[in-house]
Task: inverse folding
């Protein structure tokens, strides 16, 4: 056989195999499944690139919930099924995948996402297609407030609640000592929103604050040396940042040896949870004493279910930590399940009505979904970074969140006012 | 060196970061930071420039090669933790493995498309980015990786009234050594002379009996070694993660465009300018941080389209 023929032969073999396999797939579906058509959830999250760990963590939570539910007989006798799609942190890819999931895969619900830009794109489509979209990891207040609509929900904190919680804790601990603030925030919507909210929320509680300098590195910056030397030469007393993920890790590695944590009281919006800090060892430069927020500090949450579910996530994902994205995905699936069972059908309109203002169950306890903006009042736990003997990575300790929880979310009046002009 | 007393209020500035009273200390620290950022980028960009200079291939996958070097270094260092000074062995071994990988890529893939339309090079090297990224994800997972500063560079040095991490100074030293090392290699060794010959005229060198394809392989491997070395040396400083290549490759593009495609001295000067511009730029106009590199590139492209040290043929 000549080289060309061989290639042609191989290609045809592969094509025939593919055809046969797909036919087997078509015919092997049990006939009985027709009456037990699965309820489909389309999960959209980055599954590749620098945000992949957040997407896979959310998928883990969804998988664990679905396994449990299906083992218990499904929802209304129908099994749950998830279809995962990679958004590649691109609004156009996210939108395309969401459309494909709804139009050709006929999913009943959309779920997930960390990038707010992508979430807003998907949310716009969900509104048009009248499909419920439960946002998990995206933090922009715009999603539920300015651009909120009937079909979008967020189960998880938002940027305002995160920043407000850390600002309150910082004001209480360091308010009398720290008035001159240096800021470093990624130069996109989230970073700017966090910087503004911190100025407002900290400024409300501490008088005479002054922002000495504000820096805006690009998201994905790995070399922070020039920023660090700049604010080490400043007269600031407090450092506020909203860096997370790899950016945060790089920042800490460079900031600790330079003495940033000795010179400043450091406050961060959120470093991106356990999946970010899990690589820090006790011998590494660590952000000890920093105030941060986290949405699932299961090591300190006073609810046995939190640790139990965390163990299930670790088991499923084979990791030494459980992620906040996992618990948000898990809770979202259960919220939909409870709603479907309560209304007795997979009926989008009825499910929306049911969830509005409802207290849903979660591994951290009851969480209320605000009726006006469909924002779950998820506690943004704030605490101080430290090492404890039980965990190999640093994490927030002495967790606290503002009570009543409504105080760290924008009020219905504020949101009405915000939406008025539109 | 220190003219102002350190306890004096160093600058009075509004939020916009415009310093009314700059002091020498702050400027000196920015200078050092800029040098260290620039040298780290230089280590990566010089490989890209070297490959383009000789092979005339614009290797889009050079960032992915850098990422591969970083992952290999982290993996070697953390797998053989018990060996003292393993980081330094990993810095030697990791880039070497990357160079071998590069050699394989050159012989198996790149060699087939020399002289074709440049679009094929873009498609092939872009495909390599996807392959390397997925390979890294399969081998080492999607999480973050991090290793600590190696002994004996885990300290800081006193610079005037401030402190500066020793490791960053080490990077500056490595960058400068690589610059002079490469110059010496190209100028004084036989291999260097052959590389220069092939760069100027491939046909004549071939007619003179030089094994041109082998020279191409060696140059591509050397370029990949440099990229891998940049990755390995960056690991104590940055978080090693999927997607770390994208930011770096854009900076490399800026550097080679400023310096002139294919010029090694150009890459050095370009990296220095970019590093210093970023460092001093954020003191004056922090809200334009993202734009500095691109503004500089646009200005250079208008004034001198072939780059500061480039030759007109690449215009």
Result:
């Amino acid at each position: 056989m000549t080289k060309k023929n061989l290639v042609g032969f191989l290609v045809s073999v592969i094509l025939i195999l593919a055809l046969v396999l797909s036919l087997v797939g078509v015919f092997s579906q049990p006939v009985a499944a027709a009456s037990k058509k699965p309820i489909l959830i389309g999960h959209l999250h980055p599954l590749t690139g620098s945000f992949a760990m957040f997407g896979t963590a959310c998928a883990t939570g969804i998988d664990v919930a679905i396994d449990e539910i299906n083992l218990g007989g499904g929802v209304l006798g129908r099994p749950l099924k998830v279809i995962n799609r990679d958004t590649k942190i691109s609004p156009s890819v996210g939108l395309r995948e969401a459309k494909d999931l709804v139009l050709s895969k006929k999913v009943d619900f959309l779920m997930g996402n960390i990038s707010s830009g992508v979430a807003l794109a998907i949310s716009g489509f969900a509104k048009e297609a009248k499909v419920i979209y439960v946002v998990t990891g995206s933090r922009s207040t715009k999603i539920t407030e300015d651009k909120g609509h009937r079909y979008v929900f967020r189960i998880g904190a938002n940027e305002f609640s995160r920043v407000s919680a850390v600002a309150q804790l910082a004001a209480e601990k360091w308010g009398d000592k720290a008035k001159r603030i240096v800021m470093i925030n990624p130069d996109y919507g989230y970073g700017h929103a966090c910087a503004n909210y911190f100025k407002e929320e900290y400024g409300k509680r501490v008088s005479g604050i002054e922002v000495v300098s504000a820096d805006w590195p690009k998201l994905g910056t790995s070399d922070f040396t020039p920023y660090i030397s700049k604010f080490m030469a400043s007269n600031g007393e407090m450092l506020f940042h909203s860096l997370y993920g790899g950016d945060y890790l790089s920042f800490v590695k460079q900031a600790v040896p330079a003495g940033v944590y000795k010179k400043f009281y450091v406050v961060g919006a959120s470093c991106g949870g356990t999946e970010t800090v899990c690589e820090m060892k006790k011998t590494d430069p660590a952000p000890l004493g920093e105030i941060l927020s986290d949405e699932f500090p299961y090591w300190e949450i006073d609810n046995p279910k939190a640790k139990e579910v965390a163990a299930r996530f670790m088991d499923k994902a084979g990791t030494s930590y459980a992620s906040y994205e996992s618990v948000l995905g898990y809770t979202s699936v259960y919220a939909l399940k409870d709603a479907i069972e309560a209304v007795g059908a997979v009926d989008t309109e009825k499910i929306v009505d049911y969830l509005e203002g409802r207290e849903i169950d979660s591994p951290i306890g009851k969480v209320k979904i605000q009726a006006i903006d469909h924002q779950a009042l998820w506690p943004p736990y704030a605490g101080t970074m430290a090492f404890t003997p039980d965990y190999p990575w640093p994490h927030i300790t002495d967790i606290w969140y503002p009570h009543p929880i409504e105080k760290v979310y924008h009020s219905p009046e504020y949101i009405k006012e915000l939406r008025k002009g539109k | 060196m220190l003219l102002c007393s350190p306890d004096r209020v160093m600058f009075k500035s509004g939020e916009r970061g415009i310093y009314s009273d700059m002091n020498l200390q702050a400027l000196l620290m920015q200078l050092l930071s800029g040098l260290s950022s620039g040298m780290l980028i230089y280590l990566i960009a010089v490989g890209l420039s070297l490959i383009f200079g000789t092979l005339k291939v614009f290797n889009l996958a050079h960032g992915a090669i850098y990422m591969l070097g970083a992952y290999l270094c982290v993996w070697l260092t953390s797998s053989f933790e018990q060996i003292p000074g393993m980081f330094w062995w990993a810095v030697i071994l990791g880039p070497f493995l990357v160079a071998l990988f590069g050699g394989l890529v050159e012989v198996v893939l790149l060699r087939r498309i020399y002289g074709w339309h440049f679009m094929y090079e873009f498609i092939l090297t872009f495909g390599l980015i996807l392959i390397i990224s997925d390979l890294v994800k399969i081998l080492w997972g999607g999480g973050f990786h991090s290793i600590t500063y190696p002994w004996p560079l885990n300290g800081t040095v006193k610079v005037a009234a401030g402190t500066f991490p020793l490791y960053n100074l080490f990077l500056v030293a490595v960058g400068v050594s690589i610059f002079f090392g490469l110059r010496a290699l190209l100028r004084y060794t036989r291999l260097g002379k052959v590389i220069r010959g092939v760069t100027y005229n491939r046909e004549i060198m071939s007619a003179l009996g030089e094994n041109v394809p082998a020279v191409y392989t060696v140059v591509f491997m050397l370029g990949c070694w440099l990229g891998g070395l940049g990755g390995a040396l960056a690991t104590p400083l940055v978080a090693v993660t999927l997607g770390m290549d994208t930011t770096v490759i854009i900076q490399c593009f800026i550097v080679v465009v400023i310096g002139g495609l294919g010029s090694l001295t150009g890459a050095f000067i370009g990296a220095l300018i970019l590093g210093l511009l970023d460092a001093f730029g954020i003191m004056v106009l922090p809200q334009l941080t993202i734009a500095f590199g691109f503004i500089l590139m646009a200005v250079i492209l208008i004034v001198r389209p072939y780059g500061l040290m480039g030759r007109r043929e690449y215009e």
